[in-house]
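ugh ok fine here u go
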Amino acid sequence: MGKKKTMDSRLRGNDIIKIAEDLLEKIGEATFEIDSKMHDMGVEIEAVKTKYQAHINEWKNNLADTEKDLIALMKKNKRVLFDAADQVDLDNGVLLYSKKLHTKIPKNAVEAIDAQGWEDGLKRTVAVDREVVSAWPVEKLTVIGAERTEKEVFDYEVNR
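structure:
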């Protein structure tokens, strides 16, 4: 990274060094407390998940099966259920029937749309790969209006 400098005892009396020491100590304490509480929270969350997950999964599976059964019942009996209306009010809920247009799109649609030049039918995501561009030579950077400059970086390490 750079040159490492150790402060000798006469510089430690300096107010700026004392402030920096105090701030690093506070950062260390805060980091320790956050990490400790995050760990404790993770343990408790996993315990709660374990306690309830099997029961929840059982009910989700039950719900999915029951919904499939209800849809199958409505499809099989649509003439009886929806003969005069598209809504049947029952004590425990409402059964609904409607028709909507659905578009079936073949697997080769991207190529076909692209070949026709119909850009509005395609989603294109373009982004700069910063890691790749950062490694380019200055000549290439200049062409796109980018530049490589030196940037000051201030960082710290906390002794634990």
